[in-house]
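Q: What residues go here?
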């Protein structure tokens, strides 16, 4: 039988004890081979025994989450897409400041890459766009 892997984002989950309860209950769902909830990223990875039970399992997981944490939003993580953007930094006249800007941009969440070209005054960034399917 073919296995299926799904990822669900549990947006608003802020209780580690509740996360553990959710993880335990999801692991007891029929057709769930293994479920792991990463509390830091709020992403639950579920491996199913087959491909035809995906929607039923997602519905069941959503019900479990809402019983334990009613305000948590459950969305299926479909994929991450990166978008490249170029921004013009008008008035940039300090190479040291350009390096500081580049460094701070790189520290931001969902930034894959950032580069300030001091000679052209352009900031090139590649950032993650999350595509979610609400449940």
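A:
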């Amino acid at each position: 039988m073919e296995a299926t892997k799904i990822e669900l984002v549990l947006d608003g989950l802020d209780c580690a004890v509740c996360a553990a309860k959710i993880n335990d209950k999801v692991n007891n769902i029929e057709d769930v081979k293994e479920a792991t909830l990463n509390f830091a990223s709020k992403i639950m990875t579920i491996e199913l025994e087959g491909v035809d039970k995906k929607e039923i399992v997602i519905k069941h997981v959503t019900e479990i989450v809402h019983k334990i944490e009613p305000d948590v939003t459950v969305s299926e993580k479909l994929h991450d897409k990166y978008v490249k953007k170029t921004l013009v930094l008008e008035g940039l006249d300090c190479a040291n400041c350009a390096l500081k800007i580049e460094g701070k941009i790189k520290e931001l969440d969902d930034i894959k890459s950032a580069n300030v070209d001091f000679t052209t005054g352009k900031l090139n960034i590649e950032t993650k766009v999350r595509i979610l399917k609400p449940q």
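A: Context that may help when evaluating the design: The first helix runs from residue 16 to 27. The two ends are 26 Å apart (CA to CA).
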